[in-house]
Amino acid sequence: MVLVERIVARSPRLRRSLYSLSLTLLKAAFRLRRIGLDAFARPTLRLSQYLFRTASSRTRSRYAAESRMASGSLYVARRLSLKLWITLIFATAQSPLPWGFGKALTMMLFVSAAISCVLALVNHERFRLGVLSYWDEALAFVLLGQTARMVFLR
Fold it and tell me: How far apart are CA 153 and CA 24, in angstroms?
């Protein structure tokens, strides 16, 4: 499969012929279905779809890599959501206390931002576009802390 996609990606002439063959098979599948030969129409349609996907594999693979989130970034996003849930649980547990939910949530978000900054410095992480890190996590905590501060403490 990969070998076929590599060959097709290097040859525009082969790609054009695969496109035209897939369109011909698509027309044949519709004709077979119109006649009532569904047993032959389905495999013809599947073959047409396979050829079309193979012909367009170069453009599809180019844009698919840009749209997917890197596995490291996905891990950081999950870690951030877990930390936010834990922060919310502990802030909710402090709501009957004199300082209340708002101050507890604001303080915990800013402390989490400071901890993320320290972890980024300890791990020697850089500011990079496209890959989430502790720096992005710290920025998210600061923004959420400022939002909580404006909502609850003013």
Answer: 68
